[in-house]
Amino acid sequence: ARLKSGLSKTRRILTTDIDELFLGKKIVDDDMIEDLEELLITSDMGVQTTMDIMERISGKRSRIAGAGELKRVLKEEILAYFDALPEPVPEAAAKPHVVMVVGVNGVGKTTTIGKLAAHESKKGRKVLIAAADTFRAAAIEQISIWAERAGAEIVRHKDNADPAAVAYDGIEAAISRGADTVYVDTAGRLHTKVNLMEEIKKIQRTLSKRLPDAPHEVLLVLDATTGQNALSQAKMFNEALGITGIALTKLDGTAKGGIVVSICSELNIPLKYIGVGEGVEDLQPFDPKQFVEALF
Ligand code: GDP
């Protein structure tokens, strides 16, 4: 239900407009193909992905005899992208399971960590958060509030401390206190892109020095309302760090939910979580079938 209401803005456009495409028509004609193409691009599925889908739909034209049928075919095509994604990293393969969380400021990194920590705690897992975004004092405060709310432990230093040192202390504390999961928050200031990537790479190296396979997960948080911009951010972070999973926030705030399809078709990275609201329950594991059902 939350997923459905969260995606209502996107669904309103896709569903209503597809229904309208068929008004007074029985077969798929060229005008309709053109309108559908525009519709998919408007929903932010991306030019490449839209072209791809359109080509395959064109081949099935004779099979499509109404809006319901068209939606069914679209669902099939979109699911095929989700099915082709690699398997995500298992949640609890290692102890502690170390998740480094990255993304530019404002995408919802702090809240995502808070929500994930809350979910884990609720399952009875012991969670520790390392506040390695030391660039903003406010970030340390905010993540501490989330940690407390989630019943998670926090490792923090003063602001402007060395982020890699915080990360090291975090993993050290997690090992000695027997934590199940460690979330390492990182900085996301964008105006010094090169320095930022070097800083995060240093955190990554420091974690693996203490625990050879860590970080087990490099989770990238993206903001769905930024549309295709999110895709360029993903490429940038992936090149520098090797992203193993994506959390896409704020899908409730946009009619451009097609960005989910764009991200899944153009990046070979599992989409693990989607955010459809500000509450803890609004961060959900991404379920391809439920998602396409909620979309149309
Ligand atoms: P950070 O700078 O990346 O750490 O971003 P924050 O975690 O502080 O989040 C920025 C804002 O986005 C906050 O007001 C969050 O409540 C909001 N936010 C995060 N995720 C979602 C979501 O899925 N839906 C909505 N509507 N808001 C969200």
TrEMBL record:
Residues 270-283 form the SRP54-type proteins GTP-binding domain. It is a peripheral membrane protein. Belongs to the GTP-binding SRP family. FtsY subfamily. GTP binds at residues 103-110, 185-189, 249-252. GO terms for cellular component: cytoplasm; plasma membrane. The keyword Cytoplasm applies. It is an enzyme of class 3 (hydrolase). Part of the signal recognition particle protein translocation system, which is composed of SRP and FtsY. Keywords: Cell membrane, Cytoplasm, GTP-binding, Hydrolase, Membrane, Nucleotide-binding, Receptor. It catalyses: GTP + H2O = GDP + phosphate + H(+). This is Signal recognition particle receptor FtsY. It comes from Desulfosarcina widdelii.
